[in-house]
């Protein structure tokens, strides 16, 4: 088996991006880090880290990094099963780090509550669109993902979590300026500025098409932040699809209005988890299901 | 001069990521988009768009894309100077799109107010760490950036905006669990879980070093979202440097405490703007200065 201290050195360099910070993380000298990494590279027979600013993994380094994470996670499962005390001390090797892909709106609405519910794990979150988060799992870069797709990823289990309700929202002034004269028509919707999260975000276009049968939306702002997205809608910069739990307060106090009342867009979310660590991940899966159930609606 | 309709087709394809959606954005047929792009490519004598999923720019395409954006921005300046009505109609070519690099914490605290203050512009925001946002400007990928560095970027003007105050914060329960026994010492801080935005984020380490003279922080969660960062601190997952305007409410009602009271970290922020469009950008610069002054503290 690979030497745990050497694997820890590799993980720390790749997480921290430099030998100096890795040494600080592990409370050892920089030369101890260099030496452990060199020994690991000699054993594997190939370079593991590209010594750039910041340091990056080679393909082999990335594979070993994931391996180290999986072993720590499995070990925590063993400790739990054997009734051993899980490590609470703060040395970086004590708690496994769990790399997950989460869509931004889940993180902004319910995912922190799930994290709060899981003991003895460090989270390393990758944020991506719900239509693309499963790609991280396919590439083997994360252990689990929250995705809008029910399509199973090879080697992974998939279970439904619920739907996140989105509402097309805008400020009252924006509504008056762009939609008062003619209502929400293909023409007015083609003129009114829209807010889009990023090039992957199809929610605005989907809503226009599914709710109104309109295929073209207007010129777009690009704003890759869930909270800023709500703030920008309140500020009157454009209309956009906001998650109900985030927009609810502003809708209740009148800072936001629904562009067309009674036309929500429900986006189902699924939890995909790598089968190789599904056992060790059980407490995480349970926490995710509990926290999501408090905010998401049942999938019809 | 390049044909505006052809440049608009290029911009739309690169923004929307596909010919189909570009056609929807510009309210023309997909074959019109193809034709305009092909004509532009023939004129330039090289390929501008890589026909992938999503479509990406070649080096020449990226250069022309930036050119189109600059011309629209300059034209808006001319319209203002000549007292012409700036375009309000919603065709995608009517409003210039302004690509800016903004640090996440500015976007979460004051930048939306600046955006609200600027008329007739579409924003395309790139979010990056305040220590790296200026790199986007150096690479010519944005027209302006909010950066933590006062170092002028070649061809750009730089002006100070103020400092964003960060406080080392954690939940009362977290404080009791990790710091009650021994206080905040090198040993306890080396054990206590910390929250880090991403590998570029040095704020936690800087604070430990500058405020306490401690060079090593504990094992880290990685959480690249300003609001989730505050939420995770409130949830007791770790301690982290939160902007005072975001953490203020939770500090006031007791959900958060300062790890060491009276030890803030003030991070200066600067507005860097490309000189080639500085004139056209004047209203944007003015709005950024006004909005930042309401939240940031004066730079000492």
UniProtKB/TrEMBL annotation, chains A, B:
<dbReference type="Pfam" id="PF00126">
    <property type="entry name" value="HTH_1"/>
</dbReference>
<protein>
    <submittedName>
        <fullName>LysR family transcriptional regulator</fullName>
    </submittedName>
</protein>
<dbReference type="InterPro" id="IPR000847">
    <property type="entry name" value="LysR_HTH_N"/>
</dbReference>
<comment type="similarity">
    <text>Belongs to the LysR transcriptional regulatory family.</text>
</comment>
<keyword id="KW-0238">DNA-binding</keyword>
<dbReference type="GO" id="GO:0003677">
    <property type="term" value="F:DNA binding"/>
</dbReference>
<keyword id="KW-0805">Transcription regulation</keyword>
<dbReference type="InterPro" id="IPR005119">
    <property type="entry name" value="LysR_subst-bd"/>
</dbReference>
<dbReference type="InterPro" id="IPR017685">
    <property type="entry name" value="ArgP"/>
</dbReference>
<dbReference type="GO" id="GO:0003700">
    <property type="term" value="F:DNA-binding transcription factor activity"/>
</dbReference>
<dbReference type="InterPro" id="IPR050176">
    <property type="entry name" value="LTTR"/>
</dbReference>
<dbReference type="Pfam" id="PF03466">
    <property type="entry name" value="LysR_substrate"/>
</dbReference>
<feature type="domain" description="HTH lysR-type">
    <location>
        <begin position="2"/>
        <end position="58"/>
    </location>
</feature>
<dbReference type="InterPro" id="IPR036390">
    <property type="entry name" value="WH_DNA-bd_sf"/>
</dbReference>
<keyword id="KW-0804">Transcription</keyword>
<dbReference type="InterPro" id="IPR036388">
    <property type="entry name" value="WH-like_DNA-bd_sf"/>
</dbReference>
